[in-house]
Amino acid sequence: MESDTFTKFDVVVIGGGAAGIMAALSVKKHHPDLSVAILDQTFELGRKILIAGAGRGNISNSNLVHGPANFFHGNQELISSVFSQFGYKEIMDFFDNLGVPLYEEKKSDKGKLFPYIDHAKTLRNMLLDELVSKGVNIFCNTPVLRGVHGDNGWSIESKEIIFRSTYLIVSTGGKTYPALGSDGSGYEIARSVGHTIIDPVPCAVPVVSKNQLSQLLQGEKMVMRAEAFLDGKNVSESVGDVMFTQYGFSGPAILDVSYEISIRINRIKGSGASILLTFFPRYTKEEVLDELKKRKEKHPGYLVSHLLWGLLTERISNAVCDIAGILPEKKAEELSEIELSNLLSVLTSFESEVTGTRGWNEAEFTAGGVDGSEVDPKTLESMKMKSLYFAGEVLDEDGMVGGYNLSWAWASGWVAGRLGR
User: Fold this and answer.
1) Distance between CA 179 and CA 196 in Å, rounded?
2) What is the SS3 assignment for 3?
3) Would you list the domain boundaries of the chain?
């Protein structure tokens, strides 16, 4: 690199997302005399925070009070260690002290925590103000070309400046939403010192599944139970909105159950994945059958599709009957036992093969990254290179939709920023 410009800091943080911001603040909290710089390749810090909770800022989850049970992959010892140091209470206290008290959204009953202002941009701006007030140096539009460790510490090269530091914290995120700055660049620094990278794949992602429901109901959504199956075995399930799309299924319930499916298809290059949908998640199959029989007896002259009105929309009712092989002119009193059984099957156990997932631009999170077994679970320091720390989604740790992954960003950033002390 041809440059005579050198800038020296005690700590350089690469990546200015949630984890990087928290790491820098943690350094200043625990080591106030150390100089800190954040380098980010985009034009502003915290861009992914802005889209959290559809712009409202779903930044944590109250279920963390019970421990990190909703994290799927990676080193569980590491996850537990990090949250034991900076868990539910510490996250709540941090934002309260920042001036952003959190509240639990009750309508979803999933423990999602939002700032009272319901505005992610204001929250992000308050974090940036905190960085400035603590004296953290911010360098935007500064993509890192490489980071090298030598006798005098770290040399971090950008296009115009070489940054020198004693400590390096890598918090570059995964590969989701590359337009917002997450492109997997941190993996190369980890690889350069000998770290194993678990193959990153998109998770919390819509799935590709050619099926009749999606074909007939494109653009519709409904609260359903979605279950993910691999080789006929149920691996996860969730209740929430399912959206029917031209390529298959999307919506919160699908994102929740897509983790193992994406790993099977995108990392292992395997097959045998499917989604099973239930239209009435709060009722058993027997209860649905009883309701259909009651409606049939009460309204024998109704068209079969009309029997479902009030339970389903007209469009969904027509689609369900079509898939069950019931003719549009069929009346309830003419419904055979076989047709009733077919109708029940569509309503309570509609299964469709999954052949793929959507890509990085539509995924919420990344599954994969720096192997957590190669990182000290107490400090997040690299076991391959002293003075190198990792925080956030660059590590192979991922949780459910609903504030868990941002919780990991806050917690891991805080632990990494302690610099092992």
Assistant:
1) 26
2) coil
3) 6-201+367-417, 206-358
Q: Please state the φ and ψ torsions of residue 89, each to the nearest 5 degrees.
A: -65, -45
Between strands 162-170 and 388-390, the pairing is parallel
Rounded to whole angstroms, the Cα distance separating 193 from 188 reads 9
Tokens encoding 197: 């990278």
Distance (Å, rounded) from C-alpha 335 to C-alpha 321?
Answer: 11
Contact criterion met (CB below 8 Å) for 33 and 100:
no
What value does the CA radius of gyration of the chain take, rounded to a whole number of Å? 25
Does 254 have pLDDT greater than 70? yes
pLDDT at 2 over 70: no
Pairing of strands 248-250, 356-357: unpaired
Tell me which fold the domain 6-201+367-417 belongs to: FAD/NAD(P)-binding domain (3.50.50)
Triad 15, 21, 23: Cα angle to 5°: 90
Whether domain 206-358 has CATH 3.40.50.720: the reply is no
172-185 pLDDT, tens digit per residue, is 999 988 877 778 88
Beta-bridge partner residues of 208:
248, 356
8 Å CB contact between 136 and 88 = no
At position 244, the amino acid (one-letter code) is F
d(CA 416, CA 418): 5
How many whole angstroms separate alpha carbon 379 and alpha carbon 306? 61
Residue 358 has pLDDT above 50, yes or no: yes
Which residue is associated with the tokens 């994290």?
71
Distance CA 48, CA 117 (A): 18
Terminal-residue alpha carbon distance, the chain: 35
Taking phi first (over 0 means left), then psi (-120 to 50 degrees means alpha), and beta for anything else, what does residue 219 get? left
248-250 vs 233-244, strand pairing mode: antiparallel
